[in-house]
Amino acid sequence: MSMPTMAADGPAATNLSAGQKAAIGKKIWQNECAGTVDGLTSWNGGEEFPSLGIGHFIWYPAGFNGRFEESWPQFVAHAKAHGAQPPAVASERHAPWASKAAFQAEFRGPRLSALRQWLANTVPLQTDFIIARSRAALPKVLAAAPASDRGRLQANYNKVASTPNGMYALIDYVNFKGDGTQASETYQGKGWGLLHVLGSMKEVASGQPAAAEFAASAKRMLDRRIANSPPARGEARWKEGWHNRCDTYARPL
Q: 120, exposed or middle or buried, with CB in 10 Å at 0-12, 13-18, 19+?
């Protein structure tokens, strides 16, 4: 895999090859759905909403106002803007299942089957959406940070982005846990998004050392999230899987 281009003072990887995009999309699909078609329409235990697509885009049922950014409507709008024709159910304002039980009861029904087939056929489109969200994250992170921290955050981003697996790490993490600029995406006032991972990185050289330190920092921030989370959510059950995912950031794509 060839290296992406990177500006010295701006967001990295303004251009990714088709091969790089395909590799990143495949890896995210594996992370979120174990690479399965069934996994493209999921409702995870302990959550109040379904997660759809290779990036497990969140879709809230009517009447539920969650703390996490709702990304499914954003993806559907992106898909339509690029000429895609999703199944009618995809365009509903709210997820039409009020509970996990209702979702599972309809899992092999026509609506979810149509969604899975469409999602399986639009993996490149979903990958482009995830990459676009990642590119939009850095300006938001820098704007949200104190002026004194911005240079270090930019430098850490560029260090991580200097390898293909580092670019994958940045793209995947924003999709996985957000950019860290949403006040609602905190527990006890502490966040876990890209802003916090970049900010908690130790001083390292560019390239693979930076990718490894980004992975380690991500695990530290997720451990802090678990420690601060409401006990009823039982987030400790996800620690091993979250750590395993972060470990992939330090390995060749």
A: middle
How far is residue 94's CA from residue 151's CA, in Å, rounded to a whole number? 40
Distances (CA, A) of 157 to 98, 106, 172: 39, 42, 14
How high is the mean pLDDT in each 10-residue block of the chain (253 residues)?
35 66 92 94 93 96 89 96 96 96 97 97 94 91 96 95 90 92 93 97 96 98 97 94 95 85
CB 142 within 8 A of CB 154: yes
In 10 A of CB 34, how many CB atoms?
A: 9
Q: Is the pTM of this model over 0.90?
A: no
Across 42-75, b (16+ Cβ under 10 Å) vs e yields bbeeeeebbbbbbbbbbbbbeeeeeeebbbbbeb
